[in-house]
Specification:
Layout (H helix, E strand, L loop, with lengths): L7 E3 L1 H6 L10 H16 L3 E3 L13 E2 L2 E2 L5 H15 L7 E2 L1 H20 L5 H5 L5 E5 L1 H9 L6 E6 L5 E5 H13 L1 E4 L5 E4 L11 H11 L6 E3 L5 H12 L5 H10 L5 H9 L3 H25 L2 E6 L1
């Protein structure tokens, strides 16, 4: 008789997301089920990469006919997440791996994963609670600038949870580091620190070496020191602009601002209109800053950061 334990079958995104499980879930039964799976994985039970509904999904209240019915688009969206997760982790379908080996790969892929899948995830706040409670001076202006850069085609932004510093890293450096991380070999040292040897040095000028070193530190962070600052949600920005328009007394400006809100790029057009109205532009900056302070405060509270003093 074969007494070997069956492997834990996990689909792509669960191979990543379960590392951030903190005991929250849809209901008590589901949480207990997840806790047992994580306990087995951490104890050394083998993980088998699978597609579709896995051992986690078995107790999910939204699983119907082996499909996720969380909402009408959930199943195809999750399948795409699974595909990308397996690709980032450099795994293959039906491959059997150890939990600790997956854990070692996560720092190198977390930046790419979080920017594409975490911002709009309903479980983001729960995952971010993994970050330790911190108190530091909060630079609301810098965080606001980071959040309002929703395109992120030149820079991406991270919050240092030890100092409160907002770190801006160029997309050029981030792309080079990501590429090197995915292609590099990971060698674990005896003291638990990982060294990474690259087949080729990142193709960047010498004056970007300090930023390259910082990007490596941020992307390979295992201690939760750095957290990517999310983009401002377009719906929230649109709501604030709409509310501001209601406070405008000049009928011409009011119509111009209302027109600017139609279609893509509304935030940029809205600010461009205000360039011809310096007093109203100044009033908008104060109005928007107040709204953003509320957004930033709620985000910081969700990741258990407390402000000692405002910058």
């Amino acid at each position: 008789m074969n007494h070997l334990k069956p492997p834990i079958k996990l689909r792509g995104h669960h191979l990543i997301c379960l590392h951030f499980f903190i005991g929250e879930g849809y209901n008590v039964e589901f949480v207990a089920h997840l806790s047992e799976i994580v306990k087995r994985a951490e104890a050394g039970d083998k993980i088998e990469v699978c597609s579709g509904a896995d051992d986690v999904c078995k107790r999910c209240p939204y699983l119907k006919d082996d499909k996720c019915m969380y909402d009408k688009n959930a199943d195809p969206e999750i399948q795409e997440m699974d595909r990308r997760a397996i690709e980032l982790l450099r795994l293959k379908m039906a491959e059997r791996v150890n939990w600790i080996d997956i854990k070692k790969r996560i720092p190198g892929i977390l930046y790419e994963w979080s920017r594409n899948y975490c911002n709009d995830c309903d479980w983001r706040k729960a995952c971010e609670k993994k970050v330790r409670v911190n108190k530091f001076k909060v630079n609301f202006d810098e965080i606001q600038k980071a959040m309002e850069d929703t395109v992120r085609d030149s820079f991406d932004y991270f919050l240092d949870l030890e100092t409160g510093e907002v770190i801006a890293l160029s997309e050029e450096v981030l792309s080079e580091v990501q590429s090197s991380l995915y292609e590099g070999d990971y060698d674990e040292l005896e003291d638990g620190i990982e060294s990474i040897e690259f087949d080729k040095e990142p193709d960047l000028p010498y004056w970007m070496e300090d930023e390259l070193e910082l990007a490596m530190e941020v992307l390979l962070d295992e201690d939760g020191q750095y957290l990517r600052i999310p983009e401002r949600k377009s719906a929230e920005a649109h709501k604030v602009m709409t509310e501001f328009i209601e406070t405008v007394t000049d009928p011409v400006l009011k119509e111009e601002l209302a027109t600017a809100l139609n279609g893509k790029g509304a935030f940029r057009r809205f600010k461009d209109v205000l360039l011809d109205y310096p007093k109203e532009r100044k009033r908008w900056h104060g109005y928007n800053a107040k709204a953003m302070k509320k957004v930033i405060t709620e985000w910081l509270e969700s990741i258990e950061v407390r402000s000692e003093k405002e910058w």
